[in-house]
# Entry
Amino acid sequence: MISATSVNGVIVHFHVRVSTSYGQEVRVCGNIPELGIWDAKKAIKMQFENNLDFWSADIKLPKSNEDRTIEYKYVIVNDDNSEQWEPEQNHKLVFGAINDDCVINIEDHFHWRDNVLDAFSRATFVGAINSRENPVQSQPITFKKNGAHIQTFFSTNCPYVRPKQVVRIVGNVPELGNWNPKNGLVMRDGCFPIWTANKEFAKSSFPFEYKYVIENTEDGTFLWEDCENRVCPAPVSVNENLIDYVQDWFICPNKNLFKGMGIYVPLFSLRTNESQGIGSYTDLKKCVDACNKMGASLIQLLPINDTTEKGEWCDSYPYRQVSCFALHPVYIDLLAITDKLPAAMKKEILEAKEKFEKYEQVEYPAVFAFKMKYLKKIFKLEKENFAKNNLDKFLEKTGSWLKPYALFCLLRDEYKTTEFRKWPKYSTISPAELEKVCKEKKNELLEIYWIQYVADKQFKESYDYATKNHVALKGDLPIGVNINSVECWAFPQLFRLHMCAGAPPDDFSSDGQNWGFPTYDWEAMEKDGFAWWRSRLTRMAELYHQLRVDHILGFFRIWEIPRETCVRGLLGHFFPSVPFTRDELNGMGLWDIDRLTKPYIRWHILCDKFHGDAEYVSHKYFNSKGWNAQDDYYDFKPEFDNEKKVLQALENDKTLSDEKREHYKYCLFQLIGNVILIEDPENKGLYHMRTEVLKDHVEATKEGPVVYVSSSWNELDEGLKQRVKEEANKFFYERMTNLWVQKAQPKLNILKNATKMLICGEDLGQITAGIIKAIDESAILSLHVQRMSKIPEEDFDDYHKFGYLSVACPSTHDTSSLRGWWEETKATRENFWYNILFRHDACPETLSPEVQEDILKQNIWSNSMWAIFLLQDITSIFPELRLQSADAERINIPADPNHKWRYRYPYKLEELIANDKLNSHVMQLVRDSHRI
# Structure
């Protein structure tokens, strides 16, 4: 107990319960010198009270007229001096002016990790779904002398409180209502999800018991937390100048955890009365209204960053962004920029709008050219006002990314290409030179600055509208960065430019995928604490409440493909990795490196693939080894020994018909990939197992995929075949998992902690148990696509087993819609019909609205926090809304690198908002599944 004579200044007394083992000690470490300035070696040591694991410590602060904030954590120090820092966010004490000697008694809680409540503390809930409408600001800790009473402050983290609810403190003393919740102390929500309150308590009221209670302000009902009564102990000081501060940690009186429904729409697909050939930033407001009508509380978008290279169809690919920060001009609503458009110009825009809106799909090149033409015209009207009133402030906020982007665009247009390596000037640029050139070209860059200002303003108006209406916006963070982008030009040191990112063969593509993006140089990024990633995520947090991380497995390991030699993804390898050494291979009996690393090609294989052309092909593309007169062996000629060379040769060969050229490419690529091992391109003498080593290729048919066995593997002797099969499984699913998890940890920490966005990982693909565990422990939401099981032995993902911290999404932009999927393969739909829907009648060839609704219900009734559906999957449960064919509902075909991203939803959002039958039915599904 602190005596009256011991007080001189402001004494802060920390009192906390920490479970420790013999030899451990507890310290308080924080942001002020008295707490070691975040150095645990200089932190204040606590005293063990030998009473139920309680520890205490005092520090002395000077009196002050200034406000001040102390942040701190508790640290457990082991007997070997290793440190275990308290998890989750810092404790925070906010002081007002204190000019009297006093004791501030902190009754604290050691923070524990709670992934669910951490999720509720993110911007999805705090900033949108549960955002407070009229927040009451918290009071700082101040001292007011009152001999008979003790000023008592409370603080707790209660994130799961709906907008029409408040938190009260109810207890067994008059100050807390004597257990009557109606008279309990109402807490302030100005720092939501932190709730605070303060009140003068009679000294005779101590110690007291209390609980936190949530009140529904609409119906007057109360929800009590389900735990033993909390206890505030008697004062630690006999001094009259005492402040008591009770700081609790996570609480959650709401028993039923939040579950929500969301809609999944590319921005370009939206259609409203105001659309101009493509969805616009302002159309999101109508999308929010549609969500409120049908009970959805989230809108998931595809990337909306600028992709402009040529203004052609290739730019329609939203993941091929030329900037990770700049927004795409094509989504700007021309008619919403200013109300001072000349009548003639407005008439021209309206006429073009009418023409474009007649198209069933997005005509990207034409719409982009139209938007840019009129943006230039409107800029001439707005230029002077922008330069005078908005430019400096906008540049101050965004200049770190806007200046490099604007200069890149200017040089792109001047040199007619984004391939900056070909630019005659500024093909490389330093930060100092970039700043210098931007100053010199300020007037030329003004239009680009203005376009970004308009795009940013329009999107943020929609963001604010969504927030106000309690609908969260979910963005999409692409795993890759365009090789011809601002980032690769201005920050080349952050990328492995000689490699391409992609994916091994999966349900999306049997040959794997080569996205063409350079991979990240994580070691270079880590040198400055991942500053580029922090900036990128901070920018996204300005736009979204929640984030889908595309291919989150790439943060553990990325599938790297040599840029100079490969077209497909098949011949890639994971990076980082633990490839085989020659000694390891010899120990496995895999000593014949030429046989295992060179394409296995024999005469009978050429005959199987090329039939009557085998003789011509053998002479044109191969050298005979002359080992076997009846069934000879072959090597590729040097001019055809990789995919890039083959592709170039076939494109230059004008003697071939288009059909034969495609067939030759298909078969020659198969032969190039007919290997067991791949030598590491950067470390000679080390070898990777080829992915899907048992397969030659897969052909899709209406009856289901047909798998052709690899002849390179199949024609080994039986002992080696079995050894390769076993070692391949270990290589991809066991050998490297620990390395991947270790390397991913700092990256996942940045993803999660750089902002308050809720992070959801797209974790489909070749995944190990160790990676699944790491994602679960990180509190990053995983993704469940019912048709794509994460367990190799199972055909479908069991919706009964979806974890709470996950997203259920039966279709994505990379898959067919539910209707399209049903019609793809007979074997798959029959398997689902009989074994998942438990039907016993004949399986239909097309998906009826009733059965489609059953599939939606399985996902919406899952335990996942979020059930998110493509808009077309929702509305096509109504026969009258099936305006498009099943194939026309598809957004992307990942196996086609030249796919045109042009999907347009067939109905205007205003039509959906007015459709009472649709909205009442979907709303009932949402209510029945408790997702509202």
Q: What stands out?
A: The chain has four domains: 4-250, 261-476, 562-733, 782-870+891-900. The chain is about 30% helix and 20% strand. The CA atoms of residues 809 and 868 lie 5 Å apart. The first strand starts at residue 10 and ends at 17.
